[in-house]
Amino acid sequence: MIPSDRLRSAAARIAANRGEQPAGPFKALRKLFVQEKRDWKRPDAPRIFPWWKPGELFEVLNELRHGDRAAALAECRDVAYYGASSFDRVWRIIEKYVPAEIISAAVEKYERRASGERGVK
């Protein structure tokens, strides 16, 4: 099974475990650019609007701006996850620019999360 299919399958299982529907392609695309703010307890968490925060692509750029390459690579796994759930063209761009080992790490992370493993980061 190719990585994008494995990530989509993991996304469907994660959503099913939560009793939700998996993110559709538009929602997954949106999460690359802007997403719901869930970490209200952290006053330093960035905000775009009162209920929104920068998306996964901006989190990668933010980590690179702070010089934390390891954190940026970890955020790239989330970019791969949402990119796979988005549109095929988006996935092709991600597949072209995100290193294969990061995509493999994303597959591993989200398959572990889909199997019910807690605390997977």
| Total tally of structural domains | 1
Mean pLDDT: 87
The structure class reads mainly alpha
Main β sheet profile: 2 strands, antiparallel
Give the percentage of residues in beta strands. under 5%
From the spread of the alpha carbons, the general shape counts as globular
Radius of gyration: 14 Å
- The poorly predicted ranges are none
What's the total helix number?
A: 6
- Measured distance between first and last alpha carbons: 23 Å
Name the strands of the widest sheet in spatial order. Answer: 1-2
For this entry, what is the oligomeric state of its chains? single chain
Q: What's the number of extended β-strand segments?
A: 2
Q: Secondary-structure element order, as H and E?
A: HHEEHHHH
Fraction of residues in helices?
A: 55-70%
